[in-house]
Write a structure and sequence with these properties.
Layout lengths: L5 E7 L6 H12 L5 E7 L6 H12 L3 E6 L5 H11 L4 E4 L11 H10 L5 E6 L6 H18 L11 E4 H9 L7 H8 L3 E6 L13 H13 L4 H29 L8 H34 L6 E5 L8
Parallel strand pairs: 1-2, 1-4, 2-3, 5-7
Antiparallel strand pairs: 3-8, 4-6, 5-6
């Protein structure tokens, strides 16, 4: 039995209405690249239609594997579940909303063939058609990845990506309560390449990423994968202490020279508010890291599988 060449991992959430179209188009595009597998991970969708559609597709197509999670874990953890179970020589990840056209999979595969030395190739749309707010959020996220994780200049991270299986397994080995694939990838490697792809509007439903969730995920990308915020505040504390020391020496010299008058009330209050606010922020950041340690040690598993369909025997792997 030939080994699986490509594993396509798609986290699914309330997408049963269009999964049949998605699977059919993927099957048509990937037929020349067989054998391959399509892993659909149902992230505990609140509707029954999504899992029912996955079960039906697993019966219809030999290449479909369905995984139903016991509780909702979010897009990133659901993707990691698929990565951990993938057996292909290369692993492809994409969204379930048809904004990543299956026909563009060929571009990722060809780019990996042309650049076999790369650890990850990501498809970047020429135009996303985003609102100004979403565009600003995307720009902010890319800036954070560059500043905090050393993302190569000019590289854009997306969820439409292809990776060698060895690199995908490395990502899975990274144990953390709140994984985010973009920051993990740019932290593990700089061998990243972009390829232009088409990006289409979402045909049905609406995005699960509202403003609040985007802000939360951006915050997590700073806190949960890097210690840089703690280091920044440590440096800020040292600088503040040094400035206070030199200002104290300066004030003492003025006092000796008889040049010190009545201290200003406004400047005193401003100083107290500024340094008090800095202290509260530092304590809050420290608390976030302590909380993260507690969750890593005592938290729930990243995901739990309730049931599977379309699972092949070990000899087929």
């Amino acid at each position: 039995m030939k080994s699986i060449r490509y594993s396509i991992v798609i986290p699914c959430y309330s997408s049963g209405a269009w999964l049949a179209e998605l699977a059919a188009r993927i099957g048509q595009v990937m037929a020349p690249h067989s054998p391959f597998e399509l892993i659909l991970v149902n992230d505990h969708s609140p509707d029954v239609q999504t899992w029912a559609a996955i079960e039906e597709l697993a019966e219809r197509y030999e290449f479909v594997r369905g995984i139903d999670l016991l509780y909702r874990v979010g897009q990133f953890k659901a993707t990691l579940c698929g990565l951990e179970l993938a057996v292909g020589n290369h692993v492809i990840t994409m969204d379930d909303d048809l904004q990543h056209p299956p026909e563009e999979l060929v571009k990722l595969i060809e780019a990996m063939r042309d650049h076999p030395e790369m650890d990850c190739i990501m498809g970047v749309p020429a135009s996303r058609g985003q609102s100004r707010l979403r565009h600003l959020g995307t720009l902010l996220m890319q800036t954070i990845l560059g500043l905090f994780y050393g993302k190569p200049s000019g590289i854009v991270t997306t969820s439409f990506r292809i990776m060698p299986a060895a690199f995908a397994r490395t990502i899975v080995l990274y144990r953390m309560s709140f994984p985010q694939l973009g920051p993990l990838i740019v932290r593990l490697t700089h061998k990243i390449h972009n390829v232009p792809v088409e990006h289409r509007p979402r045909p049905l439903g609406s995005s699960g990423y509202g403003l609040f969730k985007l802000i939360k995920e951006t915050y997590r990308s700073i806190i949960h994968v890097t210690l840089l915020p703690l280091r920044i505040f440590s440096i800020a504390g040292i600088i503040t202490a040094a400035l206070a020391f030199f200002y104290g020496v300066y004030s003492f010299i003025l006092w000796l020279a008889g040049g010190v008058g009545v201290p200003g009330f406004t400047s005193l209050i401003l100083a107290i508010m500024f340094f008090g606010g800095m202290l509260l922020v530092e304590v809050g950041i420290l608390g976030e890291y302590i909380g993260r340690i507690i969750l890593e040690l005592t938290g729930m598993p990243r995901y739990a599988i309730y049931r599977q369909v379309g699972v092949r025997d070990e000899q087929d792997h």
